[in-house]
Amino acid sequence: LVTLAIRAAQDAESTDVQAWIDTAFNGELMMPKRMIEAAQLEQTAGIEARLADGNAVMLESFTCFLNWFGEDRPVEVIASDGEFPLLGIGLLIGHRLVVEYAQLTVTIE
Q: Reduced to 3 states, what is the DSSP secondary structure of residue 95?
């Protein structure tokens, strides 16, 4: 799990979100609809996605702002019916993900 401080706008108060790292998700961030509504994120557009079973679906897309390694940046958030937020490889590109199973730790550098 990674704690992310997301904001609905650059000058808005932040909301902490605990996200699971999902290396099979090629987007940036996926969050349950209830959490998106609570954070008052602005909807941007729909996005077509291909699921693991091969089916194509349209998903709602939103924007949040995130300080990611010292850079304040807009991040695309995909709405889901799931229970947990997922951090995808869209945010991991250019970084190093280290999983230490012996210490039960995960580090993003």
A: coil
Positions in the chain whose pLDDT score sits under 50: none
93-104 pLDDT, tens digit per residue, is: 999 999 999 999
- Residue-wise pLDDT for 35-48, tens only, equals 999 999 999 988 88
How many angstroms separate the Cα of 8 from the Cα of each of 41, 47, 56?
5, 19, 28
The letter for the amino acid at 108 is: I
Q: How many CA atoms lie within 13 A of 45 on its CB side?
A: 3
Residue with tokens 């958030």: 77
Are 49 and 59 in contact by the 8 Å Cβ rule? The answer is yes
The secondary structure of 14-52 as a DSSP string is: EEEEEEEE-TT--SSEEEEHHHHHHHTPEEEEEEEEE-T
Q: Are 41 and 50 in contact (CB under 8 A)?
A: no
Name the nearest CA neighbour of 28 among 6, 13, 10: 6
